[in-house]
Amino acid sequence: MDKQKALSIVKDKLTNGRFTHTIGVMETAVRLAEQYGADVKKAELAAIFHDVAKCMPIIELKEIMEKNQFSLELLQHNKELWHAPVGAFLTKHEYGIDDEDVLQAITYHTSGHEEMSLLDKVIYVADYIEPNRQFPGVEEARKLADLDLNQALLYALKNTITYLIEKEQSVYPLTVQTYNSILKQVKS
Fold first, then answer.
1. Could you please report the per-residue DSSP string of 69-127?
2. Are 160 and 62 a contacting pair, CB within 8 Å?
Protein backbone atom coordinates (compact mmCIF):
# COMPACT_ATOMS: atom_id res chain seq x y z
CA MET A 1 0.00 0.00 0.00
CA ASP A 2 1.36 3.41 -0.87
CA LYS A 3 1.88 6.18 1.65
CA GLN A 4 -0.95 8.46 0.46
CA LYS A 5 -3.56 5.69 0.52
CA ALA A 6 -2.44 4.63 4.00
CA LEU A 7 -2.58 8.21 5.28
CA SER A 8 -6.07 8.72 3.85
CA ILE A 9 -7.30 5.58 5.62
CA VAL A 10 -5.97 6.58 9.02
CA LYS A 11 -6.95 10.23 8.69
CA ASP A 12 -10.61 9.16 8.62
CA LYS A 13 -10.13 7.15 11.83
CA LEU A 14 -8.32 9.74 13.94
CA THR A 15 -8.88 13.15 15.47
CA ASN A 16 -6.88 16.01 13.96
CA GLY A 17 -4.50 15.96 16.93
CA ARG A 18 -3.96 12.22 16.71
CA PHE A 19 -3.38 12.48 12.95
CA THR A 20 -0.77 15.20 13.54
CA HIS A 21 0.89 12.85 16.05
CA THR A 22 0.82 10.06 13.45
CA ILE A 23 2.57 12.27 10.88
CA GLY A 24 5.21 13.08 13.50
CA VAL A 25 5.70 9.38 14.28
CA MET A 26 5.93 8.57 10.57
CA GLU A 27 8.59 11.22 9.92
CA THR A 28 10.54 10.23 13.03
CA ALA A 29 10.32 6.51 12.20
CA VAL A 30 11.63 7.10 8.68
CA ARG A 31 14.56 9.11 10.07
CA LEU A 32 15.37 6.48 12.70
CA ALA A 33 15.04 3.65 10.17
CA GLU A 34 17.47 5.41 7.85
CA GLN A 35 19.88 6.08 10.71
CA TYR A 36 19.85 2.57 12.18
CA GLY A 37 19.36 0.47 9.04
CA ALA A 38 15.76 -0.68 9.42
CA ASP A 39 13.48 -1.10 6.40
CA VAL A 40 12.29 2.46 5.71
CA LYS A 41 9.08 1.47 3.86
CA LYS A 42 8.05 -0.89 6.65
CA ALA A 43 8.82 1.76 9.26
CA GLU A 44 6.73 4.30 7.37
CA LEU A 45 3.78 1.92 7.02
CA ALA A 46 3.89 0.73 10.65
CA ALA A 47 4.09 4.33 11.86
CA ILE A 48 1.11 5.38 9.75
CA PHE A 49 -1.07 2.56 11.10
CA HIS A 50 0.31 2.41 14.68
CA ASP A 51 -2.63 4.36 16.18
CA VAL A 52 -5.37 3.43 13.70
CA ALA A 53 -7.50 2.07 16.60
CA LYS A 54 -6.54 4.78 19.14
CA CYS A 55 -9.77 6.78 18.81
CA MET A 56 -12.10 3.80 18.93
CA PRO A 57 -14.42 3.54 21.93
CA ILE A 58 -13.02 1.30 24.68
CA ILE A 59 -16.07 -0.97 24.46
CA GLU A 60 -15.34 -1.64 20.76
CA LEU A 61 -11.70 -2.38 21.48
CA LYS A 62 -12.74 -4.82 24.19
CA GLU A 63 -15.30 -6.50 21.93
CA ILE A 64 -12.72 -7.03 19.17
CA MET A 65 -10.24 -8.41 21.68
CA GLU A 66 -12.77 -10.83 23.21
CA LYS A 67 -14.27 -11.92 19.88
CA ASN A 68 -10.85 -12.65 18.39
CA GLN A 69 -9.37 -14.30 21.49
CA PHE A 70 -6.70 -11.74 22.32
CA SER A 71 -4.74 -12.17 25.54
CA LEU A 72 -7.12 -12.01 28.49
CA GLU A 73 -4.23 -10.75 30.61
CA LEU A 74 -4.05 -7.63 28.46
CA LEU A 75 -7.70 -6.89 29.28
CA GLN A 76 -6.77 -6.72 32.96
CA HIS A 77 -4.26 -3.94 32.40
CA ASN A 78 -4.32 -0.33 31.28
CA LYS A 79 -6.80 0.32 28.48
CA GLU A 80 -4.17 2.53 26.82
CA LEU A 81 -2.48 -0.69 25.70
CA TRP A 82 -5.49 -2.11 23.88
CA HIS A 83 -5.39 -0.01 20.73
CA ALA A 84 -2.02 -1.45 19.68
CA PRO A 85 -2.96 -5.12 19.13
CA VAL A 86 -6.42 -4.13 17.87
CA GLY A 87 -4.77 -1.71 15.46
CA ALA A 88 -2.56 -4.49 14.10
CA PHE A 89 -5.60 -6.76 13.77
CA LEU A 90 -7.53 -4.10 11.83
CA THR A 91 -4.49 -3.25 9.71
CA LYS A 92 -4.38 -6.87 8.59
CA HIS A 93 -8.06 -7.76 8.37
CA GLU A 94 -9.62 -4.45 7.32
CA TYR A 95 -6.82 -2.80 5.33
CA GLY A 96 -5.12 -5.85 3.82
CA ILE A 97 -1.59 -5.35 5.11
CA ASP A 98 -0.17 -8.76 5.94
CA ASP A 99 3.51 -7.97 6.47
CA GLU A 100 4.25 -9.65 9.79
CA ASP A 101 7.10 -7.25 10.60
CA VAL A 102 4.79 -4.26 10.22
CA LEU A 103 1.99 -5.93 12.19
CA GLN A 104 4.35 -6.89 15.01
CA ALA A 105 5.70 -3.33 15.28
CA ILE A 106 2.13 -2.02 15.54
CA THR A 107 1.12 -4.69 18.07
CA TYR A 108 3.97 -3.91 20.46
CA HIS A 109 4.39 -0.16 20.07
CA THR A 110 2.91 0.47 23.53
CA SER A 111 4.19 -2.48 25.57
CA GLY A 112 7.32 -3.67 23.84
CA HIS A 113 8.28 -7.35 24.06
CA GLU A 114 11.37 -9.33 24.96
CA GLU A 115 12.57 -10.06 21.42
CA MET A 116 12.08 -6.65 19.83
CA SER A 117 13.25 -6.38 16.25
CA LEU A 118 14.98 -3.27 14.96
CA LEU A 119 11.69 -2.19 13.36
CA ASP A 120 9.82 -2.71 16.65
CA LYS A 121 12.35 -0.51 18.42
CA VAL A 122 12.15 2.19 15.75
CA ILE A 123 8.35 2.42 16.02
CA TYR A 124 8.33 2.36 19.83
CA VAL A 125 10.94 5.11 20.09
CA ALA A 126 9.45 7.18 17.24
CA ASP A 127 6.08 7.13 19.00
CA TYR A 128 7.75 8.26 22.22
CA ILE A 129 9.88 11.10 20.81
CA GLU A 130 7.96 12.49 17.82
CA PRO A 131 8.18 16.31 17.62
CA ASN A 132 4.69 17.00 18.97
CA ARG A 133 5.33 15.18 22.25
CA GLN A 134 5.85 17.45 25.24
CA PHE A 135 6.51 15.86 28.61
CA PRO A 136 9.34 15.76 31.16
CA GLY A 137 12.24 13.79 29.75
CA VAL A 138 11.29 13.86 26.07
CA GLU A 139 14.27 16.02 25.12
CA GLU A 140 16.66 13.58 26.79
CA ALA A 141 14.97 10.70 24.95
CA ARG A 142 15.40 12.57 21.65
CA LYS A 143 19.11 13.09 22.34
CA LEU A 144 19.55 9.43 23.20
CA ALA A 145 17.70 8.36 20.04
CA ASP A 146 20.25 10.26 17.96
CA LEU A 147 23.09 8.39 19.67
CA ASP A 148 21.85 4.89 20.54
CA LEU A 149 18.43 3.41 19.81
CA ASN A 150 18.64 0.86 22.63
CA GLN A 151 19.55 3.56 25.16
CA ALA A 152 16.58 5.64 24.00
CA LEU A 153 14.28 2.62 24.25
CA LEU A 154 15.56 1.78 27.73
CA TYR A 155 15.02 5.39 28.82
CA ALA A 156 11.47 5.40 27.43
CA LEU A 157 10.60 2.12 29.12
CA LYS A 158 12.02 3.29 32.44
CA ASN A 159 10.08 6.57 32.26
CA THR A 160 6.87 4.77 31.36
CA ILE A 161 7.20 2.26 34.19
CA THR A 162 8.10 5.01 36.68
CA TYR A 163 5.15 7.13 35.55
CA LEU A 164 2.72 4.23 36.00
CA ILE A 165 4.10 3.43 39.45
CA GLU A 166 3.87 7.08 40.53
CA LYS A 167 0.22 7.14 39.34
CA GLU A 168 -0.42 3.88 41.23
CA GLN A 169 -1.39 2.12 38.01
CA SER A 170 -0.55 -1.46 37.18
CA VAL A 171 2.44 -2.11 34.96
CA TYR A 172 1.84 -4.62 32.18
CA PRO A 173 4.25 -7.53 32.84
CA LEU A 174 5.41 -7.58 29.21
CA THR A 175 6.66 -4.01 29.59
CA VAL A 176 8.74 -5.01 32.62
CA GLN A 177 10.09 -8.01 30.69
CA THR A 178 10.95 -5.69 27.80
CA TYR A 179 12.79 -3.35 30.14
CA ASN A 180 14.81 -6.26 31.55
CA SER A 181 15.62 -7.55 28.07
CA ILE A 182 16.76 -4.15 26.74
CA LEU A 183 18.74 -3.51 29.92
CA LYS A 184 20.67 -6.74 29.28
CA GLN A 185 21.34 -5.65 25.69
CA VAL A 186 22.60 -2.24 26.80
CA LYS A 187 24.82 -3.68 29.54
CA SER A 188 26.41 -6.36 27.35
1. T--HHHHTS-GGGTHHHHHHHHHHHTT----HHHHHHHHTTTT--TT--HHHHHHHHHH
2. no
Nearest to 43 by CA among 51, 35, 32: 32
CA distance 56 to 168: 25
Rg (CA), the chain: 15
Query: Exposure string (b/e) for 157-172, b if CB count within 10 Å is 16 or more?
Result: bebbbeebeeeeeebb
* Inter-residue contact 111 to 118 (CB < 8 Å): no
- Output the pTM of the full model: 0.96
**141, 129 Cβ separation under 8 angstroms:** yes
Distances (CA, A) of 39 to 104, 105, 160: 14, 12, 26
Nearest Cα to 24, choosing from 32, 35, 34, 13?
Answer: 32
What is the model's pLDDT at position 75?
85
